[in-house]
C-alpha cells in the first residue's frame, strides 16, 4: 500500500495542527485586501512537506521547540512567496488546481503580496533574534534566484550539460530542502556535525525530488499521463539531456530544432517524448534519482532510531513515489 502523508505525519500530528494556527497568525495583516488574499493562500495550502522536514529533522536531532515552529513558518512563508512570484513570471493562472493570485488579483497585487510575505519572513527571524535562520533562508533565496536565471539563460540555446543541470536543480529545488533540514537541526541545537549531515541529507532529497518532478513530463504508466510542459517551455531536464547525449549528431540537431521551433505543436512534443523514452532517458533519470534517494537514507543511519527518524525516511520515500 502506498505511503500516506497522514501516516508519515503521525509523530508530529499535534505539532502540524499547532503550526497551522501559528502560520496563519504570522500571515495576518491589518489591510483588508491583503488579509483576504492571505486567507485564500492558507485555504489552498499544499502538502506542507517542507514544514514536515523541519519538524521531523528537529525531532531526530533533539526537541521540537518554539523555534522549530518559527523555522517551519519561515520556510513555508519563503516557499509560498516564491510560488506567488513564480506564477507572475510564468504567467500561470493556476496553482495546485486553484486560481493563482495573479489570475484573481492581477500581477501588480501578486508581486506586492510576494514582497509582503518575504518581508514577514525576514521580520519573523529578526524579531526573535533567529539570525541563524535568517542566514540559512537568505542563502536559499539567493540560490533559488540564481538557479532560475541560469535556467532561463540556458533555455535560449539549449546547450545545457548534465553537470549544468545538476547545478541548476541544486539551486532551484534542493537549496530550499537543505534550508528546511538545516533550520530544523539548528532549532534543535544540533552539533555542527549533525547540522552538516542534515544539510547533506536535504541536498540528496532535493535532487531526488526535482528529478521525480522532471519525470512527470514524460508520463510513463507508473508516473502519470504525458504532459510535455517542460518541453513546451524549452526546459532541458535529465531524461532529455541523457537522450541527446546518446544519439547521433544529426538526430540531436533535429530534436533540438524541433524543441526550439515547434514545441508549441502537441504532435511534435509527443515526438520528443517518444524519442526520450526510446533512448533510455527515463530509465537513466530514475537510476540517478534512486542513487540520491539511497544516499539520503544512508545519511540518517548515524542518528538513533525513533518515530521521527522513521517518518523522515518515509517522507523521503514519499517524495520519489508520489504520483503528482
Q: What percentage of residues falls in helices of 4 or more residues? A: over 70%
Quaternary structure classification = single chain
* Cα-to-Cα separation, first versus last residue: 17 Å
Give the rounded overall mean pLDDT: 87
Helices and strands: which structural class?
mainly alpha
Please count the beta strands (DSSP E, at least 2 residues each). Answer: 2
What best-fitting shape do the alpha-carbon axes yield? globular
CATH superfamily: Farnesyl Diphosphate Synthase
Number of helices: 15
Largest sheet: 2 strands, antiparallel
Strand-helix topology:
Blueprint: H1 5-8, H2 13-27, H3 32-43, H4 49-61, H5 66-89, E1 94-95, E2 98-99, H6 101-126, H7 131-155, H8 162-187, H9 192-216, H10 229-232, H11 238-245, H12 249-262, H13 266-278, H14 281-299, H15 307-321
Antiparallel strand pairs: 1-2
Relevant terms:
globular, 15 helices, single chain, mainly alpha, two-stranded antiparallel sheet, Farnesyl Diphosphate Synthase
Structural description of this entry:
It is globular, with a radius of gyration of 20 Å. The chain has 324 residues and is an all-alpha fold. It has one domain: Farnesyl Diphosphate Synthase, CATH 1.10.600.10. A hairpin with a 2-residue loop joins strand 1 and strand 2. It is built from 15 helices and 2 strands. It has a two-stranded antiparallel ribbon. About 2% of the residues have low confidence. Helix 4 crosses helix 8, helix 5 runs antiparallel to helix 8 and helix 12 runs antiparallel to helix 13. Helices cover 75% and strands 1% of the residues. The longest helix has 26 residues.
Amino acid at each position: 500500500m502506498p505511503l500516506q502523508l497522514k501516516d508519515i505525519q503521525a509523530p508530529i500530528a499535534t505539532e502540524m495542527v499547532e503550526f497551522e494556527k501559528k502560520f496563519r497568525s504570522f500571515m495576518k495583516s491589518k489591510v483588508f485586501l491583503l488579509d483576504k488574499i492571505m486567507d485564500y493562500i492558507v485555504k489552498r495550502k499544499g502538502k506542507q512537506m517542507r514544514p514536515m522536514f523541519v519538524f521531523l529533522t528537529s525531532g531526530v536531532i533533539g526537541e521540537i521547540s518554539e523555534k522549530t515552529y518559527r523555522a517551519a513558518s519561515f520556510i513555508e512563508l519563503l516557499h509560498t512567496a516564491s510560488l506567488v512570484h513564480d506564477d507572475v513570471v510564468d504567467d500561470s493562472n493556476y496553482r495546485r488546481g486553484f486560481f493563482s493570485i495573479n489570475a484573481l488579483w492581477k500581477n501588480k497585487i501578486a508581486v506586492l503580496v510576494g514582497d509582503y510575505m518575504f518581508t514577514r519572513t525576514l521580520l519573523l527571524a529578526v524579531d526573535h533574534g533567529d539570525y541563524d535562520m535568517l542566514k540559512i533562508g537568505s542563502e536559499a533565496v539567493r540560490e533559488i534566484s540564481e538557479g532560475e536565471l541560469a535556467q532561463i539563460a540556458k533555455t535560449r540555446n539549449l546547450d545545457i550539460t548534465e553537470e549544468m543541470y545538476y547545478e541548476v536543480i541544486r539551486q532551484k529545488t534542493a537549496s530550499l530542502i537543505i534550508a528546511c533540514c538545516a533550520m530544523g537541526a539548528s532549532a534543535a541545537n544540533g552539533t555542527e556535525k549533525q547540522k552538516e549531515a542534515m544539510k547533506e541529507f536535504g541536498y540528496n532529497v532535493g535532487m531526488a525530488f526535482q528529478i521525480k518532478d522532471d519525470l512527470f513530463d514524460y508520463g510513463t504508466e507508473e508516473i502519470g499521463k504525458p504532459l510535455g510542459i517542460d518541453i513546451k517551455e524549452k526546459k532541458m531536464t535529465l531524461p532529455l539531456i541523457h537522450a541527446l547525449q546518446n544519439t547521433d549528431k544529426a538526430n540531436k540537431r533535429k530534436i533540438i530544432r524541433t524543441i526550439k521551433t515547434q514545441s508549441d505543436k502537441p504532435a511534435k512534443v509527443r515526438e520528443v517524448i517518444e524519442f526520450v523514452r526510446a533512448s533510455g532517458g527515463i530509465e537513466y533519470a530514475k537510476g540517478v534519482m534512486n542513487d540520491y534517494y539511497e544516499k539520503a537514507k544512508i545519511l540518517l543511519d548515524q542518528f538513533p532510531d525513533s518515530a521521527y527518524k522513521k517518518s523522515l525516511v518515509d517522507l523521503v520515500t514519499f517524495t520519489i513515489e508520489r504520483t503528482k
